[in-house]
Amino acid sequence: MKNFTAKISQWFPAKNSVSAHCDGPCGVYDPASARIAAEAVLSMTKKILALDPSDGTHATANTLSRYVAIKEEQAHIAKTEILVLWTDYFKPVHLEQFPDLHDTIWKATKLCSSVKTEVSLEHANELMDAIKQIHSMFWATKGRDVTFYVAS
């Protein structure tokens, strides 16, 4: 099969070279997916804090476990989305534009870890603020002013 593929390449050589800045040349990036996940984290944190675990019912225990599972899953999604922007989208030229980019991303991903392991409204709000900052940096690199909004 390798020989056959090599022969095809010899018979029909590519006329132009191609390159991509990431693993896939889709070029579609948007911090909105991280925002949506972080909003779910914030929502679940509020719901957890509003529960009354002292009622001792199985329904409350079940609801709590579901909220926690969703919060942790969404925190992981937010972290993944932020890291994809960091590793696949942002380039050295963006660091020149935003010297604190690495620190901003690092702190945001650390917040994702924090909101997974604790029930902190403060940290959930800080994560939303961090993603808003990443949103602003991201769109500035594209020369666009895109409003940051929340769905909830």
If you had to describe this structure to a student in words, what would you say it looks like?
The protein has a single domain (29-141), classed as Nickel-containing superoxide dismutase (Four Helix Bundle (Hemerythrin (Met), subunit A)). Helix content is 69%, strand content 0%. It has helices at residues 2-11, 32-50, 58-89, 92-97, 101-117, 121-141. The longest helix has 32 residues, at 58-89. The N and C termini lie far apart (54 Å).
Got a strand count?
A: 0
Number of domains: 1
- CATH-defined fold name: Four Helix Bundle (Hemerythrin (Met), subunit A)
Q: What share of the residues does DSSP label as strand, in percent?
A: under 5%
Instruction: Give me the CATH architecture, please.
Output: Up-down Bundle
Computed structural class:
mainly alpha
The shape is extended
How is the quaternary structure best described?
Answer: single chain
Rg over CA atoms: 21 Å
CATH superfamily: Nickel-containing superoxide dismutase
The run of helices and strands is HHHHHH
Which stretches of 5+ consecutive residues score pLDDT under 50?
Answer: none
Largest sheet: none
> How far is it from the N-terminal to the C-terminal residue, by CA?
54 Å
CATH structural class: Mainly Alpha
Per DSSP, the total helix count is 6
Which terms summarize this structure?
152 residues, 0% strand, Four Helix Bundle (Hemerythrin (Met), subunit A), mainly alpha
Write the layout of secondary structure elements.
Layout: H1 2-11, H2 32-50, H3 58-89, H4 92-97, H5 101-117, H6 121-141
Helix pairs in contact: 2-3, 2-6, 3-5, 5-6
